[in-house]
Write a structure and sequence with these properties.
118 residues; 48% strand; five-stranded mixed sheet; mainly beta; elongated; 0% helix
């Protein structure tokens, strides 16, 4: 499945409405294990070359995320992966969903390029 998110944050998919649920900031971690594709619920521009991805995952004590980004002059293709932190393997983790955010640094300013989520 390929989801195309068009625009520069203010168009296409909208930022989530304010809620009582806090947003948990995640740091990109390519060493996660047993990774699987995560659904990007929304995104927003936080700098000319940074986009923030919003998603739902497990608690940051046990779970992490990793963004794989491929840029062209027309598009920014993002695959968000979620998995277990290496230090969380084999330990008991609570099964609570958290709303997470990950800032993704782009090689070039986003400009008018489409953001495409795999």
């Amino acid at each position: 499945m390929c989801l195309i998110l068009v625009g520069s944050g203010g168009h296409g998919l909208q930022a989530p409405a304010a809620s009582a649920d806090p947003v948990t900031e995640f740091t990109d971690n390519p060493s996660i294990v047993d990774s699987r594709r995560l659904h990007i619920e929304s995104w927003r521009v936080v700098g000319e070359d940074v986009v923030a991805l919003q998603f739902t995952t497990g608690t940051p004590e046990c779970f992490g995320v990793h963004a794989i980004v491929h840029e062209t002059p027309e598009t920014v293709v993002v695959e968000l992966r979620g998995g277990t932190l290496p230090e969380g393997v084999g330990r008991a983790c609570i099964m609570i969903a958290v709303f997470g955010s990950l800032d993704v640094q782009l090689d070039e300013p986003l400009g008018d390029r489409e953001v495409i989520s795999l």
